[in-house]
Queue: 3 jobs
Job 1
Amino acid sequence: MGFTVIVAEKPSVGATIAGVVGADRKHDGYLEGGGYQVTWCIGHLVGLSDASAYDEKYTKWSYEDLPILPNTWKHAVLPGTMRQFNIVKKLMNSADSIVCATDAAREGELIFRLVYEQAGCRKPVKRLWISSLEESAIRKGMENLRDGHEYDALYDSALSREKADWLVGINMSRLFSVLYKKTLRIGRVQTPALAMIVARDAAVSGFRKEKYFIVHLKAESLDAVSGHITDKAEADRIALACQDKSCRIGDSKQKREVVKAPKLYDLTTLQRECNRVFGMTAERTLACAQSLYEKKLATYPRTDSNYLTEDMEDKAGMVIGRILEEMEFAREISYRPNIRRVMDNRKVGDHHAIIPTSEISREAYRKLSQDEQRVLVMVAGKLLAATMADHIYVVTSSKVICEGYEFLTKGKTVTQEGFRCVEEKIRKYFGIRKETDKEPEGSNHGENGIPKMEYDRADAVVSEQFTQPPKRYTEDTLLAAMERAGNEDITGETEKKGIGTPATRAAIIEKIIKSGFVRRERKYLIPTQDGISLITILPEELTSAKMTAEWEMELARIAQGKGKGEDFIERIEIMVSMLVSRYDGMQPEDPGFTGRNRKNIGKCPKCGKPVYEGKMNFYCSNRECDFALWKRNRYFDTVGADLDERAAREFLADGRCRYEGLVSKRNGKTYTADIVMDVPEKGYVRFTMEFPQKEEKKKKQYMKNSNYSARDEDTKES
């Protein structure tokens, strides 16, 4: 009897699917049973080959070798994944048929297809397309498998994205690194995101605050305010004229305001709100949402939709019932859900909005981490809020007359709490302070929001105010800006552009931080000097948010079968080639990279060039030299020593460094020793230990009682 092989994206997902289809016998790298073999990819198993796979000369970075434009693209099994790849390959090629069960999205399609192609498999493929790992969803999906060729356009889009990132990353990183003699990592998507942060930082730094004054007229519960006054003498004169005088209410207007119930969560909105409310990073929020999906407590997180499909009314109603029954924050909430307001087939793409599943329970909730609990409560609360009544209030605006001067006061009266009750319960549940209402200055909180008609005596106070600069980006506001990028010139009926996708924006932010171009400072994202310098030297083609957003929109069109990947890649190749030729023969000025002002630690023992300190090592400035002293390596970890700047200077000057106060891991006693550096012509630096004569006794004891190895290679791993 033949087998059907199901290929999942992760072991946990594979185990869940195996439990549904009856594959309960464990093997190395897969599960078997019920006519199925269920295996997994552990994320990406296959990726694009490095430039050196096309020509050995590309191992060195040189302007003369640019641009690098492969005629035939090569892929390779990624390091550390060969064992699992071979398992999947063997199962695929011996199967009768294959089911692709990787995540139902662009990247999931790419993960499967690359393995399928690299394995040389030609077996027929069906696609499992689900938005939940609940048993009922998996069974329904398995009963309604789709032909794998229905997703050829999605694969074309994913492959085009991968190639475009490779072309821009490889060519532009090499081009500008060679020009500026500093390793610069440039990406098709992360560089425009960095440019947005740098531009906002420049706007903040260049802002010149202006002083103005406001006169407050206070009487009982009344706080009325004047307009902005630029002259303090004028403000003082008005205050003096009104002090201890009576005032009366002039014209009053009332306006009814309706705050519509929110939409359900897509991934970006969930990440933004978790950042704003809890300070969670976008990456952490995505990890928690993915974990909840794999634990069957929430639906698929990587979605850009805020709606449910029109066949989900009963399902959503059942989930709402579970939330009200099982979730602590939702106690005492009672309402009739309007589920139809969050249903719209036209606004659901590959996946509907993120909602909890019917598996939600008190017991399951208690087993979650704190951050997972936060995300699940936010998702559950949003489903309740989105199906509740609108929040309605009335704003009363009144003129206040005093000694011929006009002031303004406003009052707010809530007439229908609506969905705001859910937000208040979540705040109380997590002990979060309520955000200040964005009401105008001088809000009046008298009875019904309406002030008295007359006041016998008023106090007049002048307050000094300043115009405020734009706020630096937080992850919340940056995600919103990335989502809106390029949308200024399109209508509501046009496809949105945006930088990245809901699934990739968190990784983009983390990448520019790990590259050293941006740092987190409390909740704000601040560009480093290197980040500012990088954006300064790059052309608009690489920093333009609008252009990158247009590329993302084109990739979306390819996924819909409205465009061709080869046409998209051809345009990327033309841009890369033009940029390379534009910089031919240029001798750019120093843009002020922090590395250009780095301290000279000493001379390289191999080539004599200066050695500088990097984040993880002390490295030779000669790109063709492989000398490096890594701050963390096995040898120094073993002996409990630090390879810091002092040590690096001594190693480069004398070939050795004395360490005092070293502690034996075995008996806790201290000793003194010289660590001696050996630099072979080929290979990496090695170290040995020598003891001063007076330490000979300690040496013998140390060699006996510790796991010390007299020689150990210093690897290139940090």
Job 2
Amino acid sequence: MGNTEATLLVELLTEELPPRSLKELAGVFGWNLYAELKRDNFIADDGAASIFATPRRIAVSISNVREVAPDSEVVVKGPPVKAGLDASGNPSKALLGFARKRGVAVDQLIRVSDGKQEMFAHRDLAKGGRLDTDLELKVEEALRRLPVPKMMRWGSGDAQFVRPVHGLVMLHGTRRVPGTVLGVKSGNSTRGHRFMGESHISITNADAYVATLLEQGMVVADFSRRKSEIDRQLLAQARHHGAGLGEYQPLLDEVTALVEHPNVYVGGFDPAFLDIPQECLILTMRQNQKYFPLFDAGGRLLPKFLIVSNMKIADPSHIIGGNQRVVRPRLEDARFFYNQDRKVRLEARVPLLEKVIYHNKLGNQLQRVERIQLLAGKIARALKCDAGLAERAAWLAKADLLTGMVGEFPELQGTMGRYYAAHDEEPAAVANAIEAHYLPRFAGDKLPEGPIACAVALADKLDAIAGLFSIGQQPTGDKDPFGLRRAALGVVRILVENRLHLSLTELAKAAFEPFKSKAPVELIQFVYDRFTGYLKEQGFSTLQVDAVLSKGPVNLGVVPQQLDAVKAFQALPEAESLAAANKRIVNILKQAEAKGESFANAEPGELKEPAERALHEAVRSTSEKAKILYEKGDYTGYLMSFSVLKAPVDTFFEKVMVMVEDDKLRHGRLALLRDLREAMNRVADLSRLAT
């Protein structure tokens, strides 16, 4: 056998694979196999992998794979030198035994160090593996490590995989690599498209895999290429009909995993169905049928949709007609649920929430609604908006959970509540708040608009966090089954991005009132942790965030402006010196307190040195001006105003000793530093900016 380098192709032919996990399955398999081969030196330095995935196959092509891996040097460690030699320097039994085991004389051993001690070792050459011998084992190992939660068995064998396996290609260049994987022997034969391609296709060369599958099998093997082609056709059809596709990207991967040779056709439905809320129709088409709805320029649903078919034919009328017949009963179901649901007012459904368990330790959904209603009213009063409307929205917020439409499509909870509330002639603010109280549902999602919607959304999220914290259900590690981190980030975003003037401390206290077993400080810290990450994502540094949050601001809505002020302050030439001076002041005051110095109520009093009198006057005059700016919310102006203190602060530390023997003078100087620190650090702890 020579040691030629060639492209290696491994393809597993199966029954239809789960579309939502196809891309991941193929990717993990391909890169697992690549890593296995690379580890044992089968792949040359310039070897690269290409991953392929269709509904009935996962495959990987790896360039520059060796037929025989090169021999490699191995160092086998033996006993430590201390144990290998006796007092006279002669080999011990342990060393002689190691040499005998390795089949060499003692003088052929080397000495190596592991960083802690020196030891004897044997340097040897390990024979490189052979592809014909090793490949089937490496393919099996790559498959074994796939993230498959549930395996299937088929036939009478013991093989298990996510779907039954019917074919295996293992080709090195033009040569078939022998082996058996999952009970299937390797070959060079695969299958084309079920209807448009040849049923048996011989792959004569691994490099010709993609072209052969397309020409003879009518199969586009590359997932990304297939996805791009679907996207191109969707956009072209949408433009042709003067329409848009809305948020269509999330469906693309799943549809790509359903077809081997995509073609896009246009279908339609009875415009009378447009009387149903369009969210219902969109969800029906996208989720159940995998269609792409079309929209007009205003975002309104059109009675048209795009079908991604697995067939390319001259006359697609049968395909289009069949899909139109299939979608109609789905739309009829939506219309039935919508009409039936509107026969019962939302408020009549609320008492029935008593039969729906929220959590076995936190009661039913009606009890939760009562808590949210009370909390939403308190928040609304703090926001100086109509508490009655906020409480009404909170009372009705969960009622749509008992509707037929939400039972069929849980994703529409809140959305259907808005429609049904509008039908019941509830105030618009109430209807909007019912939908918006779930917002934001995910990272980057829109926020509730208006104080009433914000009040109900905050109440919903804070009640969830407080309640679950009270029974010890805090998130741990990467586990967050109740989505509390998402809820806390939602609280942060609502407060900050809507600039709501609310106290996090008061919110936490109010949320915990129904629960007696936990302190609100835990909720505050949990929200602060999310807030820290949120602020860093906005571009603020760790030092800046720490400097502001260390002051424990309760009004999160103003923190971004305070951070902008800190950032502007840091750009000043005086900033570094003043931050260092603040750090020095912190240390002096801490040391004084540790020694029992009593200066909490002391006044600067009679100061003797010109430098300390100058600093005292500068602090007094500057802080008076800064206080006005702070109260106006001009945090940047507030911090900037203290730049004039650099010179008097520097002179003070050069000329004045704080810890003198005279008690009165020492306490006066400590009080001066205390006043300076309090004046400068209302927005942020500037000492934390010192590096």
Job 3
Amino acid sequence: MKRYLTEFDTRILPEETVDTVIIGAGVAGLSTALQLLNLGIKPLIISKKEPNISNSFLAQGGIAAAIGKDDSPELHFIDTVKAGKGLCIEKNVRVLVEEGLERVVDLITLGVPFDKDEAGLPLLTKEAAHSRRRVLHVKDKTGSAIGKTLYHEIKKRNLDIETCFYLEEILVEDNTFKGIIVSNNIEKKLIRSKSLVLATGGYSPLYKRNTSAYKVGGDVLSVAFRAGIILKDLEFIQFHPTALNLPNYPAYLISEAVRGEGAILVNDKGERFVDELKPRDEVARAIFMQYKQGRKVFLDITPLKEKKINFEKRFPSIYKMLEEVGLKDKNLIPVSPAAHYSIGGIESEPNGKTNIQGIFSVGEISCTGIHGANRLASNSLLECIVFGYKTAYSVYLYNMYSKIDRKFSENNIQKQKKILEDKDSVLNNLKKLMWNNVGLIREEKSLNEALKNIQKLEEQLYNYRNVRYLLDLVYLAKAVVLSALNRKESRGTHFRLDFPNESNQYKKHTKIYKNLKINMEVN
């Protein structure tokens, strides 16, 4: 692989030294940071945006936990594994659902203002593929409420967050983490530390229609990949069924909880064509096929009004969005799928450990196998909390026996000369290519076409020196396409028109290594 980003020399960069660096200030990063503070470690948090601008802060529906009287971790486990279509790593799912109940109690005692009934008990809603009402929520802004509570606790401990910095390089020697290079587009600096926690979310912004808080996302995955991190199950990207579909407006998410409360999906003939509470991959494909047949699709909220559910009070954020786009008094909301959640990512254990000593990952950037081939709704915030907590303990133990390395091998310096002026056009073309060729429905012809165009783009960008994040995104897109080509079956969120059925031969996880070597392995 070409080492196209070595435009620095560690000997001349300003330096900073800390025990631990956390990249990312969403719920996963903040959860890890808070527990590290409880353990006596003060991490440095670095984020490219302010903490409230993250995918986890945008999470609407809620956080799943078996807290109901008629529920149990075992039932939660069964639902999660069923949704995962045979690819869940079951021992990790058990950690999620069993310890998840404890961590949600922690959030309640920490003061997260979950909605309650008249008796003061948590109000629970039901979402797709759950057999029980087990989703705790704060109206339709649960992620924001959890994130703000964590952030408030961290600020009370005088922990600051360095914003507007991007991760450019992870320095590794002998399979051991040494430090990072970060940049704010004005200056670069070298940060030496014992350990690194990656918590920067997923790669849904690779697609034209996405629900992400970021225009660019997934670049950190590629930085980690270049450092030797193993990536896993990249072909599995979850498309949310119901994102706003209006010209000239972003694909605003309309929470699955709206369907959980009774909203239905109809086409422009008024026909109901799918069970709205089936797993997300099935609902998203059903909507997609309606559009392929020339139909339009709407989310009909009439049943909520018939149940006398106050939409504005129950879903204030969604109501405000509908008001802004001129739909607040309409019962039919135009929707279509959008790339939403990255099931694949860095191969990680529930305690954050990766294949490189001293590097940990948590949240959507990680792939622990808990989601299998299709994530169960509202398990993502739970993952951030449960595995953030466990990762903090792993970091504490690792740091106990580690020292900060004051020396690095000299890096080869390779500078490019030309400047690329129209970077936005290149990014938009990549997003369109991924949406059209590597989206909800795939086949070998379209995937090979995508691969051919991505390779051309990679060669073109290699001649420029101001395209670090673009090259990283192109390389990540290439890895996604290769993973999708390798899985010659349909399973969960990965649907192949030329291989429409599941195959026991592929009841394995796709692992992709630094040299783009792909293996299918059983965990």
